[in-house]
Amino acid sequence: MSHQLAIDPILRDKLDLSRFAVLHIDSGKDIKVALFSTGKPIESTLGDVRAAIRMIRDHNAAVVLVHGKEMENILPPDWAVIDTELLAQILCPTMPAYTIPYLQDHYSLSSCMGADTAAIGYIFCRLIKQALSLPSALLSDLAGLSELHLAALFQRLIEVSLLTEQAVDKEKTTAKSSRKLKPTCLVNTDEMFTPDGPLATMMDDFELRLEQQQMAKAIVDLFRDGGTLVAEAGPGTGKTFAYLIPALQFLRNTSDSDKIKIVVSTRTKNLQDQIFLVDIPFLIPHFAPDINVALLKGQESYLCLKRWEELRAEITGQLNVEGERQLLSLLLVWREETRDGDIEECGAFLAAPRSQWLWSQINSDLRRCPGKRCPFIEDCFLIKARQQAKRANLLVTNHSLLLADSRAERAIIGGYQYLIIDEAHAIETAARHTFTETLSVWTITRLVRDLSGKYDLRKPDNKKTPSSAGWLSKLSLTSAGEKARRRILDNVAVLQRVNRDFFADIVGCLPLTDEKKKGRAVTAVRYQTPLPIPAAKIEDLTSAIELLQLSLFGLGDHLTQDEKRELEIYQTELEHVRALIDELFSADDKERVYWYKQRDNAIEFFSAPIKIADILEQKVYQHIDGLILTSATLSLNGDIDYLTAQLGLKGGPGDEIRTLILPSPFPYQQRMRIYLPTFLSLPDDSRYAETISALLERVISATKKKGLALFTSYRLLKVVADNLRNGAPYISLFVQEGGISRAKLVAAFKGATKPAVLLGTDSFWEGVDLPGHELEVLFITRLPFPVPTEPITAALSEKIQTANRNPFTDLFLPAAILKLRQGIGRLIRSRSDKGVVIITDQRVVTKSYGALFRNSLPVKGLEVNDEQALLLDLDQWFD
Ligand code: SF4
């Protein structure tokens, strides 16, 4: 079969495309070659790789195009191979995917394509035309950072670009909107969500959802009256539009709207981006075209132009850091085109190995920022984002930043009157995280490295690179100032030594836990009285900090005003660490909980507030007129008392807490079945791991579906994973282990063919989105009660006991029920999804408290007494 590749004459001649070939192995494992010979290239299907290599060699091809890195390894090492997937990642770094079908669709090539090889050829030509629209200087940078063959291509493109500047049309790719905009309309909120209402005329896929209507109405009332509203809305309610439309309407109809600010906070950056990049742009032209909207993330999300330039200079000068150079090349085009400098835009970079490390070298970090002295301040992405956030009437942010701002007395976001907390089930954990202090050997090490650089202080003439030089080395000082600097460097060296010794020596002072005695990795160890660490050791550490503070003080006279402000930041941080050491080792604040974690000889200490409610009340609620909390899981069998106590909502705005509990509009009865097997051993039984491994294997192999198994303990997960690896190699297994991120594991699982199973612990119980056939069988391996010895749980439990209440009913049970509901929420993600949940922990049936769990399930659980009955029913359900 042959396919014609319509080769652009300019490219054909200037790049000598007639000496290119394409090699691809398709999904049916057929090996295909296409040759760009005469303008009528022939695609051939060949029996094996050797035949393909022979054909390409006979064609005398100078360059072979492949799509995907794995293809490169099957070709002779001396061939010039160009990976079009990598080329697309470099030239189009913000695309969501780089598969052949996606790129075909992106370039609207689908209609004329018949084969993958032809598609690769077309994609290559499109990419080249796109590259030719880049400035020559950028092409030259790309050549400098790319490996041999790609570098040669970019070099050639620089020549072609100079020769054909006017000949090649600059190709502009326009972002595809997921929804079509229709003309602006006038809006009546009461009619908004009806089938004849304005929203229905704006959206192609509008669905009438009474729950959405109800929620929007409650939010309109909240904006009118102020106060606190808890709105639990099941999956599929459309809660984002239910609060965004009233918020926009409110801003439009308020006369002094420029003085009003509404903040929307989400747990995840994904939802934050969805709201800001998709939902708000769709709604704003219709509802409030003139309002000021902004998105603000944490400082670490934004590129620091100064650090970027420093790192580029450093890496370009070191030809041996190949990995870093390729990573950097994935950022070059993005850097040129980005408006916001938000790294989340650059998916190709984030998906690459070691990208997190490289990003930590070039992201914004105000501790390293010289402020007004920065030559890039005019274009600084972080400063622009923060200025926009302060001016905005509607600001979209995330829980971490919202809480960091409240801790910093609103210095980041500025004042606001209304707060909408989406994914509100996660706000307590986020708040606890924000207000938790930690101390390890790295706390001081990092601080002094920022101050003095990471070169060896004992060898002052050590070679420094721009990114490794510390703040002190960047000062221009007089000879008197130079003396002060040397004194500081001496004291830095003392502090580094004392710090290292302190953390090495105290390992022997801490009592061995049972886990440590058994040689297992140690979890958190709570302490309520001072640890048996000699006072002299603590004194040594705090004295070394004080000595450094004193010598820094002596530098002040030699600095400019800007430099003095930067010095103050270091002084404040050192003072903070000193106070933290006092607090952690006296352990005398009864409102805080203290613990440490030890892995091998590395110890980290923690201090966290026991109750988060008071902090939220003082730092957040007191300053606002209206508070909306929404999520799919906030209530326990229709009651919000647990949430109210947890978040201190009685101290929220208004006299009363309005509550709205809306079920999901999804047809759960027809789409979801929940099994409660009673034939398995109990979770504490030594045979439990074997029993559930066998059940997982039989269910997945019988249904041939994709499954997710949620665990509460990594130990159980590991045993089940080993059993499945050994006993069921035909099931594709994805296991949370070895530091692989959740996002990467979920992405790999999504790409897997059936049957497959993903095993995950804590973080997999929420936020994992596997729609349709990506997840059809969900296993809950244990009721997710909090671990009673976990320090915060233990401290909360004691507080409840002291108040003569029952920790089991007031804490453990509600927390477990909410988490179970979160876990089950992974299964049905859209109206058309269908699947089953299997709760293998039979306490849900046998224990008296089991009824509370059963009553919280979206459909009635079916008890099954033997495995055959379960498999039979599954067969009929999926039939
Ligand atoms: S002002 Fe600070 S954060 Fe911004 S580019 Fe300069 S150094 Fe980086």
3D architecture notes:
Helices cover 45% and strands 13% of the residues. It is built from 34 helices and 23 strands. Helix 27 (688-703) runs parallel beside helix 34. It is globular, with a radius of gyration of 30 Å. 39% of the residues are buried. Mean pLDDT is 85; it is low at 1-5, 166-187 and 455-467. Bound molecules: iron/sulfur cluster. Residues 304-306, 364, 369, 374, 376-377, 380, 382-383 line the site of iron/sulfur cluster.
CATH superfamily of the largest domain: P-loop containing nucleotide triphosphate hydrolases
Largest sheet: 7 strands, parallel
Q: Give the low-confidence spans.
A: 1-5, 166-187, 455-467
Range of helix content: 40-55%
Summed up, the helix count is: 34
Overall mean pLDDT:
85
Number of strands: 23
The SS-based structural class is: alpha/beta
Radius of gyration: 30 Å
Dominant shape: globular
| Structure ligands | iron/sulfur cluster
Q: How far apart lie the N and C ends?
A: 39 Å
